[in-house]
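TICKET #2291
ISSUE: user wants both folds in one file
ATTACHMENT 1:
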Amino acid sequence: MHGQVSSLLCLRVWGERACFTRPEMKVERVSYDVMTPSAARGILEAVLWKPQMHWIVECIDVLKPIRKASVRRNEVGHKVSVDTLLTAMAGRSARLGIDIEEVRQQRASVILRDVDYLIHARIGLTERAGPDDMLVKYVEMFRRRAAAGQCFHRPCFGTREFAADFRLIEANPPPPIAEDRELGWMLYDIDYSGKAPMPLFFAARLQQGRLFIPAADSPELHR
């Protein structure tokens, strides 16, 4: 039962700006040329997520030419520590607030602009699915929510300030751009099955505007 997957579902997502940060860039934020699989899954989960199901992203179509822009953004260079939280939870005095005037940092970013993608994905069932949890139930639930523009929280392109619009595509999907491009090593997802979180990467290639995503058990994934 848990090995079953749904038919292919398509969600079109677009927005004015996006930043899918490359993890090898330590200080300045530089975006991948194309949306990452984990970012696509995050958008789908913003529309529908249940513990009994999970999303399997198969490919991402790039519908508009890849365009970049350099900007400077204000960021907060500090976060509340776990020790401070534990101190406050124990009833002792601790400063939980952050004064943004004290910790504000201005950083350069290379972002994407005027992005438009088509996400192709399937729904699978997890080990928490019961006998009454059928794939068709979650497929119809997603279709209704996506068609009505409903979401648990506003989907975004890599960061909350870059909001994404979305629309369900049932037929006649728009064609991707006619471009081939080597995208380099791209973050696939984070593996939490071990003692410590482990990032997974794959050699990403844009083939006639389409980014094919390897399966979770594919030998193409590298740690």
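ATTACHMENT 2:
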Amino acid sequence: MEAKRVEKERAISLRKKGFSLSEISSILRVAKSSASLWVKGVPLSRKAKQSIEQKRSDARERAAATHRKQVDKKLTDASIYGREVVDKAAINADTARLLCAIMYWCEGTKIRRSEILGFTNSDPLVIASFLSLLRAGFSIDERKLRMTLHVHDYHDPGTQLRFWSKVTTIPLSQFHRPYRKPHTGIRTREGYQGCVSVRYLNVDFGRRLEAIALAFLNKEGPIV
């Protein structure tokens, strides 16, 4: 009992000096729960309170930094895994058609009787990948490709047209006049290049892509 009383008095003394519960627990080699019980309600000076709060803040920052490192490591591992999967995949004309069709099913025009293929997105990588798969999987007439660009009023239309022409390798002559959306003034999206719609002037292409996607979906995951 005497030993416990001495430990408690030391815990109270350390607490009054601004030591954290973790530090008290480590110094006295007791459970943190015991240290918390002993120092509960102990009056603290302003200096002690500031010291304890600073240690709490430092501990939170260390925990956040550790968490960020763990997340970064997981993201790096996932990125390596993704590259390995893609590097092993054989992208031939058949797989290009399938991947193109799945992308179209997710982001393409969902009008069943539409006579023109339409694909809209604001991510340059998505647009470039779709066109790359379209070109690799099908024999298309490049002259039938059309682009419509939607930009905000803080964009320079000429700059954005040149950007998307480079991304898509489609000449500016095949771009329609950009549609400028009114800016709400609330915020400007940093790095946002506008949204682009790809059109292919062929009466059957959209239907064919939908048919491929549906055939794949029904084969791999039929509704029961």
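RESOLUTION: both attachments delivered.
EXTRA DETAIL ON ATTACHMENT 2: The mean pLDDT is 86.
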